[in-house]
Design goal:
Blueprint lengths: L14 E7 L4 E8 L9 H4 L2 H19 L11 H7 L1
Length: 86
């Protein structure tokens, strides 16, 4: 049923296959292999939460000003825009 051979998927990854019946608009899911836990650390123990929130807030501010066509008013220029100009 799957499009990828199960041997190509890493052992720690779970595999779920599905079949969609077009006539009845029903989808059936089949758990082929359950995922294995690689480590017990949470996401926030591996990444800095404050830095993540600051980057998300800055990104939202940049998008808001881009929508209003005021992106030249940004104090902190978008790094990728600066790269494009070079």
């Amino acid at each position: 049923m799957g499009m990828v051979d199960h041997d190509l998927i890493p052992e720690h990854c779970g595999i779920i296959e599905f079949y969609h019946n077009i006539d009845f608009w029903e989808t059936e899911f089949y758990v082929i292999r359950k995922p294995k836990r690689v480590h017990k650390d949470s996401y926030w123990e591996l990444n800095d939460k404050d830095l993540f929130i600051r980057k998300v807030a800055l990104n939202l501010l940049q998008r808001k000003l881009e929508i209003k066509s005021k992106h030249k008013e940004l104090i902190f220029k978008n790094f990728f825009d600066i790269k494009k100009l070079k």
